[in-house]
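Bench notes, afternoon.
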Amino acid sequence: MAGYLFNLDKVESLEMYIRRGIYSTKLSDPSGIWKRHHEATFADYATMKSGDNIYFFIDRKIYGVGELVDVNSYCKFCNFPGASRPLSINYSEVKDNLLWDEGEYSSNQRWLCLFKPAPFFFRSGIDMDDVLASNPRAFKMLRAFWKVSFIKFDEEENQAFRDIILKFNQKSLGEAVSESNVYQSDHLQVHKSIAEKVSNNEYLLDVSPILSSCADGDQIQHEMAIEAGILYQLAENDMRTQDIFGKWDYLSHQVIASPFKPIDYMDKMDVFGYSYIVGFSPTKSKYLVVEIKKNAGSKDDVEQLLKYVDWVKDEYCFGDYSMINAFLVGYTFNQEVVEHSKNVSVRKYTVGRRPARSLEWRNLSLVEYRFNPELNRLSFNSIP
């Protein structure tokens, strides 16, 4: 299961969210158009699944552990009907329809998720340096936790979070649970009241307003919106999207794909994911790598994607290219780019010892996207 680390500004917020079993990101006013950070936040919510763990970060310390839970089959919702439209909205207009109300700025808390303690949120936070030192190899996304509301990380990093928090709080696990060692929660009552409000579809997350707000005909003007569209459609098991990209058990975006260096210069994969061998989780079968361009794809974009492929081969697959499915998504590709892709997207590698086998990897696909205004969805066409 995945993990999420939410960034908070004060202890009062930490106690409030834990007690109520709800988290909602505070966004800036869209003023008629979603910006990159808005679309990125929606993309993170879109891939949330029941069972994923959550943690909180405040004043250098990390607190946990929680777990996302479903209410009426979903663990994430719009905070009010129409929340995904990039409109400036007055608090008074939506106050009566809010699922989560913190006051005036809740009109810009557009999306939320629901969670419970798992097993507890311990009062003893752990300094980030101690967390990083506990399992240096496992922490990837935590090292890039900078100027964002929250981050998502894979199951290996999530387990490292759980390990250090549970080990640090072993004494509390053996004691009677009380206000002195764990934060109390009345999430069941809160979630019950939310279940009564979300019985219709008005509160469900939908990527349509994200896409349509930045569409120019059948082209999308924001690459982050395309990311959000792909992630949403894959997470919602859209069959047409899965026919192109496949079905994935873990999905994320803006995942680090370079050695540690200043955050602003780090390479990041637009979309990353993996699938398990069916019936044998958590043994991984395949990895997904996607590079996205809102306009025409170029030869340089092919080279950039191959750079990510080589990173995943070393960092996740340990030399086995056959586990990687790579896609370059763009509005269009000219024949020169198609031919270049065929010529350079070959990797020769060796697997096995006795006997050793020499193999070739050619699993890079060029995919054209279009915005379908009738369905308010992205459609895709794989270039032969």
